[in-house]
């Protein structure tokens, strides 16, 4: 087994243990036949926040590591350090929410920032390992991760300062941020996968797009991937039509950017013919004639 696969297995196991401990440590008790619902809801709230934070890191970790077949010693060490600090999240979350004072809130904020920047370093190292040109590596990193992580890091630093003076206000933001990140995470990381499917010219063109155009492209990529997974024979045609209209580019340009997606689409379409010959044959015939 490759060292990268073993690292993935170890990271998944550590995260699974963290989540298991989070559940086992939930102090749900029945005293004299009664449940203290205030404590129950507080405990559940702590679990939800911790789970969203850990699940968000797991998802980002899985997406980024899927882009490489081998990892360097530097990435291995950084990933192990990331897991070490991530394991502290449930305890620090409980400490902050059960005793909301400036010290506990600031400690949580510092741990949050440490984890963010360690993961940012891992993502940067992987992107540098995947792309050969320094200019391309920097542009891809900034376009996909740099801006998001920088804004998050600055926000967390501001919340740490706020937490020192107004801990209960900072607590509310510390609870909201992991949940919001968890919900938004899939769309953010789909952009990374989309860029990795482009050829070099497609990547260059993507990086020259305005932020507004990139935001238009992301949901189209998500829709394409979903329809391809469902083996929709009209997936590619729908994608190119929507992309042409949204970005004002030609079908040839879209095909050049996403030719790997197109190859996967054709392979999936051929595989799907055996499963749905009657409905599929008629629809594919209409598409091929176009």
Automatic annotation (TrEMBL):
UniProt xrefs under InterPro entries = TMEM175-like
| Segments of this protein annotated with the region Disordered | 270-290
GO molecular function terms noted in the UniProt entry = potassium channel activity; proton channel activity
How is this protein positioned relative to the membrane?
A: Multi-pass membrane protein
Q: Which is a Gene Ontology cellular component entry for this protein?
A: membrane
Question: What's the chief localization of this chain?
Answer: membrane
**Where is it localised?**
Membrane
Which UniProt keywords are present, listed alphabetically? Ion channel, Ion transport, Membrane, Potassium, Potassium channel, Potassium transport, Transmembrane, Transmembrane helix, Transport
The answer to whether UniProt assigns keyword Ion transport to this entry is yes
Q: Where do the TM regions start and end?
A: 7-28, 40-59, 71-93, 105-127, 154-177
Catalysis: reaction(s): K(+)(in) = K(+)(out)
Please give the superkingdom of this protein's source.
Answer: Bacteria
Q: Which PANTHER family match?
A: ENDOSOMAL/LYSOSOMAL POTASSIUM CHANNEL TMEM175, ENDOSOMAL_LYSOSOMAL PROTON CHANNEL TMEM175
What's the family? Belongs to the TMEM175 family.
- Protein name from the UniProt record: Integral membrane protein
Q: Which organism is it from?
A: Dellaglioa algida DSM 15638
